[in-house]
Design a protein that fits this description.
about 290 residues; two-stranded antiparallel sheet
Length: about 290
């Protein structure tokens, strides 16, 4: 019996166990790098705060109350969920630059020859980028009292999975592109070209109603649109804005307002599709 126990302990882990260990290790590595880089945390907060101060202070007198003269949110309250989504967008997309760094310094080659499936590498990197981006977005919830939004514990618990799903989908986009990039300069150029339309078509900075038809179509194929819509609906509901006003300011499909759960399902489906696509990219020989 003792011999059998020794053999069982020395038996190499199964393929599934190796994949899970690889996923956890990569997730932990990205989380530790994020926690130790305080400059990155501060920089990730600086840009959303700048948008919130400049757009909020500059446009609030012109935008007034949205959705109604007395019952709608002011522009700063409307902008606040969009800024949270913007923080997740930038953090998630650019988290994939670590793949390019790892390729340049040779660490990615070591990962590719390690006894773990390549899809595990993709999932581990996506989970790492998603977690750090979600934390970056959650830090902005500390500003809610200054915006005039009272967030209850239930609201925060609901926002956590929404932020994570949005971050997961956007991290997957970054991984799809980073899989074929050879330099951080090239990755930065592509990402800057991609992030700008994703941000401005998402409804983060202005309502998406009464737009031209062609622009409406572009906003509906933007994945960030649905993530920010879900966040905004939850935040404005917590702020006491009436549901008809929230529906008026929110995203509609074929004339019907979306529920945050449906927004989350759309983002989840997109994230699964993108993570599969990223895994196929990594499966190709370098």
């Amino acid at each position: 019996m003792a011999t059998i126990e020794v053999v069982e302990r020395l038996r190499p882990p199964s393929a599934v166990m190796r994949a899970l260990i690889g996923i956890f290790t990569l997730w932990q590595r990205d989380l530790l790098r994020y926690w130790r880089d305080r400059t990155r945390i501060a920089g990730g907060l600086a840009q959303p705060l700048l948008f919130l101060i400049i757009f909020g202070a500059g446009l609030s007198p012109w935008m007034g109350t949205l959705g109604g003269a007395t019952v709608g949110p002011d522009y700063l309250q409307f902008l606040y969920p969009g800024i949270i989504g913007m923080s997740v967008l930038f953090s998630s997309i650019f988290s994939a630059v670590s793949v390019v760094w790892d390729r340049e310094f040779g660490f990615l080659k070591e990962l590719l020859v390690a006894p773990i499936p390549r899809w595990a590498i993709v999932v581990g990197k996506a989970l790492g980028g998603s977690t750090t981006s979600m934390l970056q977005g959650l830090l902005l919830l500390l500003l809610a009292p200054l915006i005039g939004v009272r967030l209850q514990l239930g609201t925060i618990l609901l926002l956590i999975p929404l932020l994570f799903l949005l971050a997961f989908s956007l991290s997957s986009i970054g991984l799809v592109i980073a899989a074929r990039m050879r330099s951080t300069e090239g990755f930065g150029l592509v990402m800057n070209f991609l992030v700008t339309p994703l941000l401005f078509l998402s409804g983060a900075l202005y309502p998406l109603n009464n737009l031209p038809t062609w622009l409406t179509v572009l906003t509906r194929i933007d994945p960030v649109t649905y993530g920010i819509d879900a966040i905004r609906r939850v935040v404005l509901s917590s702020a006491g804005v009436p549901q008809p006003v929230i529906d008026q300011l929110g995203v509609t499909l074929f004339g019907h307002p979306l529920h945050p759960l449906l927004d989350a399902v759309i983002v989840l489906i997109l994230g699964i599709f993108l993570i599969v696509l990223a895994a196929r990219q990594f499966a190709r020989p370098d």
